[in-house]
Design goal:
25 helices, 2 strands, mainly alpha, two-stranded antiparallel ribbon
């Protein structure tokens, strides 16, 4: 297939997508229901991606694992962009910017840290790793490490690390797939997960990297065009301009006046004072949990007895009895719940009203921002499913050029996402804040009634009016509600969901391949059947891919934590596991297999412990007690990477046996 023919194929697919959107817009004008339009977007998206998998099916090992090593730089860049632009990028970034602003609140890092870290990572990947990975001729990243260090142990550890960080990332993507599918179709979350997952499996299972590459090229077109179209439509609707960046600049100026009015409102100050009183109450409970539980049980018992005596509705009594203090005898579980509530309320108090810096200031915020930027840079350059894309180009130069294409496409999406965040928040501050609780805007009522709810209001001071402190937005997937908030065509809801689904599916495809290939190619056949035929290797990879997908879907149905947290943890784990080993093995001839084992084990275990020890205590994306220098758990890679580098160098000096495999390009 020539280069010109490939471009015609992409252009044709883009035209079909455009015609589909136009047809559904006509359907809306003819009175077709919004739910029917959304279901059409969902079904057509999944069917389209599955069709590519059918057309590109293969049993050839080189095609299945590395797409025949003949994907040109532009297309590989598009596929890499789609592979990397996950649900956290498409949905979570806009919500994060709305919640935390660009620079954060002086304690927590703002959205700009994510943008700088993620884009900077592709600069690192292009300069340090892409060309050398391509020159290796390996099939997977664990195989590359095993070959360069002449060690099966290094290869197995690399496979285990790839499974760990890709598995964490995969759960987040499947969770996002379930959210998008259920919100589009109205079906329950679990069914949405398994329905959308069918499209992933048909593509990855049948065609491997060959099918995934061309699916991701189309998905990149969908993601970029969706974000650009939405940003242009919102900018035109709100400010009468087709340039989103100009619309956002006007929105920032208008928002500054509104922010000053909110800050001067006595009701806003009163609501925050009540929240601080609640924080002090939580601190007292955490300090003396047994006494707090006993006192609260007495109050609850009196209220329940009073309701029963008055023959009040059963639901009111059950609501009081559902309080953990009433039925939970373990005070430590109550303490964990109080700590989570305290952390969440602290974040709400500190979040900026507009896009200015919050009231808190000082070194903790700067340190967290720098740590997050470094973590995401090193994590982006170390994610196995992204590194694999450097193996699919014909030459090392094209592998590096594809990173430039990727960066260009990612920057377009980020500019649009940032503009969207400004304009959506402008509408929220203008239409919602200051309205009566009994006379909310229509879009606010709709968001409150959704399952799960995208908007929650707490009237802290009981005055019956909405203050900014009363507003809690579900920022993970708020972008899906942009058409409702802004009053534009319902077709955009389906279009956004199609883009979000493309983002989640494209990343899930790459992650599934990475995990199944690590299990089959790097662990099973390396250990038990090294002489197995290529067809047998491919078939086992396909079977394991299906099993991994089902396990990840099962885990995702428990809805463990928010999408952005899981994705951020995956970046830290990838950086801790792979960045030191890749850097030293590619650029230092004295790096030994013992040093590689020490670097991977020490870095990964430290990052994994730091995340688990603090995130399970309710800290998550924020800051809390017991953190090292106030660094958030998701930035654990800033500890794992230097420890891995230090241990790798030290152990290589102590056990300096050099691998026998040749190392071209190592200095």
């Amino acid at each position: 297939m020539g280069e010109a023919w490939r471009w015609r194929m992409v252009a044709g697919a883009s035209l079909v997508a455009l015609l589909m959107a136009f047809t559904l817009w006509l359907a809306e004008t003819w009175g077709v229901s919004k739910s029917s339009i959304n279901v059409c977007f969902l079904v057509l998206s999944i069917v389209g991606y599955a069709a590519i998998g059918l057309v590109c099916r293969t049993t050839l090992s080189d095609e299945y694992y590395v797409a025949g090593r003949r994907i040109g730089a532009p297309f590989n860049g598009m596929a890499t962009a789609a592979d990397w632009m996950s649900a956290a990028t498409f949905m979570g970034l806009t919500g994060l910017l709305i919640s935390d602003g660009f620079v954060g609140d002086g304690v927590h890092a703002g959205g700009l840290a994510y943008v700088l870290g993620w884009t900077g990572g592709f600069c690192l990947l292009g300069m340090l790793f892409a060309g050398k990975i391509n020159q290796s001729g390996a099939t997977t990243i664990p195989e590359l490490l095993g070959q360069r260090l002449d060690s099966s142990a290094v290869r197995w550890l690399g496979a285990a690390g790839a499974i760990l960080c890709s598995g964490v990332y995969l759960v987040a993507q499947i969770y996002a797939i379930g959210l998008v599918a259920s919100m589009l179709s109205g079906m329950n979350f679990e069914l949405g997960v398994f329905l959308a997952l069918g499209g992933v499996l048909l593509c990855s299972f049948l065609g491997g990297m060959r099918a995934v590459t061309w699916t991701q090229v189309l998905q990149c077109v969908v993601i970029v065009s969706t974000m650009v179209t939405l940003a242009v439509a919102v900018s035109w609707h709100v400010h009468g301009s087709v340039w989103p960046s100009w619309g956002a600049s006007v929105g920032l100026e208008a928002m500054a006046q509104r922010v000053r009015a909110i800050q001067a409102d006595p009701a806003e100050a009163q609501s925050k004072a009540i929240m601080r009183e609640r924080l002090a109450d939580l601190d007292r409970k955490i300090a003396a949990p047994d006494q707090a539980r006993s006192a609260e049980r007495q109050v609850l018992g009196a209220k329940i007895a009073e309701l029963k005596q008055q023959n009040s509705p059963v639901r009111d009594i059950q609501r009081l009895e559902a309080n953990p203090v009433w039925h939970d005898s373990d005070s430590q579980q109550l303490v964990q719940g109080w700590k989570r509530e305290r952390s969440l309320m602290e974040q709400e108090l500190q979040r900026p009203i507009g896009f200015e810096r919050g009231s808190a200031s000082g070194n903790p915020g700067l340190l967290n921002t720098l740590c997050l930027v470094l973590c995401f840079m090193m994590g982006t350059a170390s994610l196995p499913h992204v590194l694999m894309r450097s193996l699919t180009t014909p030459t090392a130069r094209q592998a590096q050029q594809s990173m430039v294409w990727t960066l260009f496409l990612v920057v377009i999406v980020y500019l649009c996402a940032s503009s969207l965040a400004v304009m959506i928040k402008e509408v929220v501050l203008t239409d919602l804040v200051g309205s009566a609780m009994t006379a909310l805007p229509d879009w606010a009522q709709q968001l409150r009634l959704r399952k799960p709810a995208l908007l929650t209001l707490h009237d802290h001071n009981g005055d019956g009016w909405v203050q900014w402190a009363d507003v809690r937005l579900a920022t993970d997937y708020l972008v899906l509600a942009a058409p409702e908030i802004l009053g534009i065509s319902a077709v955009f809801t389906g279009l956004i969901a199609a883009g979000a689904l493309a983002a989640a599916l494209s990343t899930a495809d790459g992650l599934l391949l990475t995990i199944s290939n690590a299990l089959a190619h790097d662990i099973y056949f390396q250990t038990l059947a090294p002489q197995a035929s290529p067809i047998r290797r491919v078939m086992l990879s396909k079977i394991l891919l299906m099993l991994v997908a089902l396990v990840a879907a099962w885990v995702a149905t428990y809805r463990p934590v928010d999408i952005l947290f899981w994705v951020s943890c995956a970046f830290s784990l990838a950086a801790s596991c792979f960045f030191p080993t890749l850097l030293l093995s590619l650029y230092w001839s004295g790096f030994s297999r013992v040093g590689a084992v020490g670097a991977m084990v020490s870095g990964t275990l430290l990052a994994l412990w730091y995340i688990s020890a603090h995130a399970l205590a309710g800290v998550g994306l924020g800051v809390g007690d017991g953190l090292w220098w106030g660094v958030a758990p998701v930035s654990a890679g800033v500890f794992g990477v230097p420890v891995g580098l230090a241990v790798g160098i030290l152990m290589s000096k102590m056990w300096p046996q050099n691998p026998s495999a040749p190392r071209s390009g190592v200095t």
